Amino acid sequence: MAATTRRIIALLPFTWVWWILGALLPVIAIPRTPAPPTACDAFPRGEIRVGVDASHAPFAAYVNDTLVGIDIDLANALAAQIGLPVRFVPLGYDGLYDALYADQIDVLIAAVPRDPARTNRVLYTPSYFEAGIALVTSRSSTVSQMSDVSGRRLAYEFGSSAHSEVDIWARRILPFTRMPYQYAAYALDAVRLGQADAALVDTITLHQYLDAHPEWDAHTPRIILSIPYVIALRIDRPSQAVMVTAALEELRSSGALDTLIARWL
Hints:
The protein is of the alpha/beta class. The chain is 40% helix and 25% strand.
């Protein structure tokens, strides 16, 4: 009996060890979900450095030494959603991506389209503006797609991206009358005044033209060439891309993005 008691006493320290391990095991075995990064985690400088092209109105330009435009308003709105101040870094067009690679900026908002050749170094958000080439007609027109242009008069800006699209479609569909103009606005004049049946123009010019001619009941049945403007971020900082994309989608769903763009176009 005494020997049994001595064996039990000898095993008691090991029993406490097993009790402790049993209590800790669930904590050790069940992985904890990491907390999502905060704004300060994603942008440790405490601000969002935004690269802009100040020579590309109405997206960004200096007016009385102040940066204004769609990209400026968009950056301010995104920063407000994220909860950090914004600092603008004006850049030349050729140095936009170099500034991002060199960590001179966190975010590039400079009316840039998605570039597939850069996706090994850059993350892109969904589009915030469609800057493509649109087919424009009067509301009463029966032209609804490019094949309908066959046998009709098509206006466009000479030497523009729209001109390149006209050359492509001239090889795809039956012949049509080509009406080149010095400016895209002149091509829209031709449609509005009944001198042409349709026009191919960039959507930026189209927005500005319709704002100047609210009486014209124009119709844009189709985007012929899509050129979506996107926001670019570094691929090695995905938390920044997640936050900026979420903020952009919130602006879109609330209608604030459309309101922002309508202020300038």
